[in-house]
Amino acid sequence: MIISAFVLRNKENILIEVSDGGNGHVSSSFFSAYRYGSVPGGDLNEGNLALKSDKEKYAPYETAKIKLPNPKAGRVLVTIEQGRDMMDWFWIDPSKQSSEELVVDIPIKKDMVPNIYVTVSVIQQHDQTQNDRPIRMFGIIPLMIEDPDTKLEYNIRMAQDLTPNEDFEVEINTANGKKSQFTIAVVDEGLLSLTQFRTPNPWASFYKKIGLQVETYDVFSHVISANKNDVFQTFSIGGGIEMDYRESQTDLNDDTKRFKPVSMFKGPFMTDAKGKATVKFHMPNYNGAVRVMVVGTQNGSYGHADKTVPVKSDIIMQPTIPRILKPGDEFILPVALFKVNPLVKTAKFDLKITGPLEIIGDASKTVDFSNQEDSQIKFKVKVKEVVGQAKIRLEGSSGNIKVENETDIAITPAASRVYDKTTQDVGIGKNIDMKVSSIGLEGTNNATLDINIFPNMDFEHRLKWLIRYPYGCIEQTVSSVFPQLYLKKMGYYDEEESSEIDENINEGITRLQQFLLSDGSFSYWPGNSKASEWGTNYACHYLIEAENLGYSVPDYLYESAINGLNRQSSRRSGKLATRVNRVFILSLAKKRPISEMNLLMENELSKMNNAEKWMLAAAYHLSGVENVKDKIIDGASTETKEYEPFSYNFGSKYRDDAIILYCATLMDDMETAELMAKQVAKALSSTEYLSTQSAGYMLLALGNYFDKANIDFGGGKVISGEIKLADGSTVEFNENGRFRMPINNNFNKNISISLNDDSNVDKVYATLSWNGVPLKDEAPSVEKNLSLDVEYYDDEGRIINPETTKQGQTFYARFSVKNTSPASRASEIALVQILPSGWQIDNTRLKESVAPSWMNQWNINKEDYVDIRDDRAMWFFDVEGNIEYDFVVKLNAVSAGEYQLPATLVEAMYNPDYKAKNTSRKVYVEEMD
């Protein structure tokens, strides 16, 4: 006898298993532990019945054997279930089997694929006292069933390895030699391993395990004098699918290199009658490994196959090129060379470029591989003062062996885009000259000429500024697309531009999903957990208008947002402006939040500004309560005031003008709407600063007014004339009230505009709007209500001069920002640093790195959101009082050369009076020793 003592600390089931350690004999028993004062029958799992099957899976027409302890008496109920269906059931008399195990035979049929559930209920006699088991015990077991006829096997035959820039063939064969339909994909194995992508398995999808949805009830647990308590359970039957997946990924390809990815797809195709097919591909310029994946079907059967094949050249060339280049850059282009084919002895390498690049020095190099397997060559390249796309092409040759490597790279400006415009009158029979400015680099300049019978009708510069706005919070995302809902209705956008507007609107709807929180509200930045009150209202307003105009808004997004807004209204949460705006938006969605509206009307009306009163009146109008609407409007006016800096709802006088215009239009008060429309149009047509919220709302309200008022922009007046371009070509126009044309050249040259005598107007207004990006920011440094200090440190925390760094050197940039204004708080601050092309950001967030200890004295990690891209880092935050905030980015000097370090900018996104900026400068990255 063996005695073993141990302490039970929790209420639990215990399995004791005893083995002889040699012959494989094993015996086991369950027992339960319970608290002092409880009874043994208190364990809900005591009625569990352990079932075993003789195999892991079965085929049709086999017989499954289910084994369980033989109760020797009583009755046994067996059911066969699948999904919601009871497929069969029968009773068994256990006394007819003398063995200790009761065996239940289950014939497997075709309609049981892919699985069934066998349940067994053992019901003991009520008066038995030979054991203390419950009156009813219950067990359930899934049986997996695979029909070989549903599985389709493919064989892939192809070359053992592939060569870049050459054609190759893939032969497909079905194992059963019958005709089938299939698709085939060839994808970069390194790209697939990043996401642990498995080759699609249609059989596993179409014949996946069916969950059990049959609900079983009985009253045995309530029978008086039964020995045991309730055994009525809910069972969760699962498998090892996830574990199987993880095990399949233990041998990942970890040494994949960073090449341009390959992704090719063809099909669907049909094999021939014998199940054979050949598919041809062309392998692009790529070195690494690809996975060939085949997925197919044949009369209800499904299959897949894959094969990983290396792709390698006789000589591998690996150039190191900056991710992005800027005009004026000069950089060293190193190329690592690896000899794969032993026949290569001497090779010549040529550098060829297209786009705004030029080679400095030799464009050809010769390498002797007789006594070496690898080598390195270098070229020097300069970027012209132009932006656009460039192509760097390397060609290698050794006898009949030819290799090539091609890289596309963007040339992007280092400065910010500049916008400007000018307007002149053109009298009948007169002509004027207007100079098309070239304020930007070649490839960045845009200009538009607008000729109109009405003044203050050019808003092109505002819309383009919104679309190109560099940040992307919830408010800016909505402001960039919201006005575009009504732009097409203004009547002067051509088909291509209208299509672009639709694309922008749909992209805006998609992007909003990144801000959506679980309660239906929207965060200020993607990924944030805190809701933005005004941003939530603004986003919901956009979704309602987009839905009403026929754009595709996902149901879950719309319902989640509107229902969330409705719940917030019921809780009466938020500041006054938010609450008023919320009931207005809910009324647009036909939700009629009357109780909240009445509460605002009775308790808060005297505290509201005029814009808020107009919104509440519009909410009552939309809810059909006209008498209350009229009462509110009688006590309101169209006067608006400037806001205090950093208002939580991004407010401004111009934004409130637009709100009144929007509400007046909605309530058919066209007299007030016309008055406000003139004010809004005049401000939009100016070059005065407008925030994204102001510009977005103004464009939206004006577009809505034009649509509702059905304004004839021509007024029945025909304008005709001629525009003479600098190259001598002419463009004639004969339009109803308005003519608009983009100007794609003639920069820094004059155009001539004349108005013909047959025009039935006295004069027109010609507005020339242009924008472009200069080579570098020539503006002087400035500090206005914000201070900015930038310093660079090495790994040990010593200050360094960033103008000269060594290739491979790691260092840190520290940006210190302080509010120097009398205001106690400055909100929605953006800090932006664009990097030289030769530097790269070491993204410590991805590595979860800890800051060095010498940074402990700094006031870091105070940002609300960080946006890190290939060529820049942006931080967004608020500053309290005159506390200094520090922002740090880790950098690597990667590519040797001479580059421009753009100016650092910190600014309040909604207040032009808060800004600080330093000047740009040259930096050098020296070659590694």
UniProtKB/TrEMBL annotation:
<dbReference type="GO" id="GO:0004866">
    <property type="term" value="F:endopeptidase inhibitor activity"/>
</dbReference>
<dbReference type="InterPro" id="IPR001599">
    <property type="entry name" value="Macroglobln_a2"/>
</dbReference>
<dbReference type="InterPro" id="IPR051802">
    <property type="entry name" value="YfhM-like"/>
</dbReference>
<dbReference type="InterPro" id="IPR008930">
    <property type="entry name" value="Terpenoid_cyclase/PrenylTrfase"/>
</dbReference>
<dbReference type="Pfam" id="PF17973">
    <property type="entry name" value="bMG10"/>
</dbReference>
<feature type="domain" description="Alpha-2-macroglobulin bait region">
    <location>
        <begin position="49"/>
        <end position="194"/>
    </location>
</feature>
<dbReference type="Pfam" id="PF07678">
    <property type="entry name" value="TED_complement"/>
</dbReference>
<dbReference type="InterPro" id="IPR047565">
    <property type="entry name" value="Alpha-macroglob_thiol-ester_cl"/>
</dbReference>
<dbReference type="InterPro" id="IPR011625">
    <property type="entry name" value="A2M_N_BRD"/>
</dbReference>
<feature type="domain" description="Alpha-2-macroglobulin">
    <location>
        <begin position="262"/>
        <end position="353"/>
    </location>
</feature>
<protein>
    <submittedName>
        <fullName>Alpha-2-macroglobulin family protein</fullName>
    </submittedName>
</protein>
<dbReference type="InterPro" id="IPR011626">
    <property type="entry name" value="Alpha-macroglobulin_TED"/>
</dbReference>
<dbReference type="Pfam" id="PF00207">
    <property type="entry name" value="A2M"/>
</dbReference>
<dbReference type="InterPro" id="IPR041246">
    <property type="entry name" value="Bact_MG10"/>
</dbReference>
<dbReference type="GO" id="GO:0005615">
    <property type="term" value="C:extracellular space"/>
</dbReference>
<dbReference type="Pfam" id="PF07703">
    <property type="entry name" value="A2M_BRD"/>
</dbReference>
